[in-house]
Amino acid sequence: MKKDRIIGFFIALAVSVSLKAQTAADSVKIRLETSQGAEIAIDGDISSTNLMRTKVAVGKHTVMVTYGTSYKKEYEIEVDAAHTEFEFKIDGQLTVKSKPSGGRVYIDGMERGKSPVTIDVLGTHNLRIVPSDRVSYFDYTDRITINPFQQQEQEFTFPKRPPRTYGMVLFNYMPISGSAGLGVTLACVKRWGMYARYTMSLDGASTSWGFSSGGRWSHAGGEYIYTKGPGIYKFEESCYWGVNAGFMVRTCKYVYLYAGSGYGDYTRGFKQSKDNVRSGFEYMNRSAGVMIDAGLILKWRAMLLQAGYNRVVHGTASNNSGENFGSIYLGVGFTIHKQKKDKQ
Questions:
Q1: Which alpha helices (DSSP H) does the chain contain, by range?
Q2: Residues 193 and 152 in one domain
Q3: Which residues lie closer than 8 Å to 298 by C-beta, 6 or more apart?
Q4: How confident is the model at residue 295 (pLDDT cuts 50, 70, 90)?
Q5: What is the pTM assigned to this prediction?
Q6: Domain match, 136 and 20 both
Q7: Residue 21: what are its φ and ψ, rounded to 5°?
Q8: Residue-wise over 160-181: b if at least 16 C-beta within 10 A, else e?
Q9: What average pLDDT does the structure give for the chain?
Q10: Do 82 and 171 fall within a single domain?
Q11: How far apart are CA 239 and CA 52, in angstroms?
Q12: CB within 8 A of 49, min separation 6: which ones?
């Protein structure tokens, strides 16, 4: 009798171990996922998030996906060793378009692409679109709500910023016969603005170019000489100063045009190199009076490039020269403005 009890005990123990081993072999770990903001459950076991990891028996199970009180749906799944991950997305789709295109699209502060773009999203979120040109346009912000499987399209035009006020400082160079004109241009402009420019030459000897009425140029001994009446006169130096002021206009993002007027005084001196009649005679061309000035400024970020032309259109002349003065000038400079830092 006692022997039978011992044998029965060991048989029951073996059966129990066998059943436990079989149950363990028939159970697998699974992963369930739905859209962010929704909840997922399996066989009544509810997860507090959209992601669930649990251990279940091999076979059929019921998965339920809920989103608040507006959405609830059951799914049947078959679990085995080869099928342990299941996904039940219920996102809607938001299509974002903008004018101009290329704006960076943010959902709750996370970048999701550039417009036009279609985004999978669910629930209520903060939408922000940042234009590629933040100098000319404001950011766009909105609060959006996308329900399960809803398709929504949002198209908008970035609101334009008023033109920024720029202060401009440019340093000018103007080629002049026998010297070089150095100057500065100062400007303040929004869409419209004003500028002032001052140029003064550096004295120096040089060979000459061009033609002056009342005489003729020739080349002798490696130098340019000027023949006036009975004497031969070598060009020695020139000097110039001028001041202009006027108006500016912003024609597009990168281009500013300006025009103005002022006063200029240009002098070219000649000295006798061969004494045919009178020794030491000096001849001088001078043009002084009202000057017109026009040009353009190209802006790229804080860098400025300038090209312009000025000319004395009416004035006095000495020694019967009738000299007219006009010259192209170039400039390079920078802008002065307050750069606002936008939060990303």
A1: 2-25
A2: no
A3: 254, 255, 256, 304, 305, 306
A4: very high
A5: 0.51
A6: no
A7: -65, -40
A8: eeeebebebebebebebbbbeb
A9: 78
A10: no
A11: 87
A12: 39
